[in-house]
Amino acid sequence: MILIDVAKNEDVKGIREVLEASFPTHAEADLVDAIMASEHYVPELALVAKDGSEVIGYSLLSECFVGEERILVLAPVAVKPEWQSRGVGAQLIEAGIAEAETTDYSCISVLGHETYYPRFGFGLAKNYQITRRLKFQM
């Protein structure tokens, strides 16, 4: 059974492993490191999917801005390749959205595949002039 929970300090190594296994470069793992070190990190919105004690998936909602409006951005969402196409990513996204609804952020934007996320109610960020104030290189 897959458990979705808030990421803890002991999950950091497993999160990095998920990110490195899920993407062709370390850019996403470096992005997460940069966000976690910034004032835009919202710890209760960093989620892991676990099979027993093994971290098999990760999602992060962090703070960004539309003008002066504080919103959340969902990125990245990652699932170990052997667990992909089994609903783990969807569980992480749905749990993140549910947790975000308990906060005072006005909306969620996502950085990701434009054909995957509409099923969760997302539209294209470029249509809403969404930018991030966090500076980092990928």
UniProtKB/TrEMBL annotation:
Recorded hits in InterPro entries, A to Z, give:
Acyl_CoA_acyltransferase (IPR016181), GNAT_dom (IPR000182)
Q: Which residues form the N-acetyltransferase domain?
A: 2-138
The alphabetized UniProt keywords are: Transferase
Which Gene Ontology molecular function entries are recorded, alphabetically? Answer: acyltransferase activity, transferring groups other than amino-acyl groups
* Coiled-coil stretches: none
Q: What is this protein called?
A: Acetyltransferase
Organism of origin: Listeria cornellensis FSL F6-0969
Its lineage opens with: Bacteria, Bacillati, Bacillota, Bacilli, Bacillales
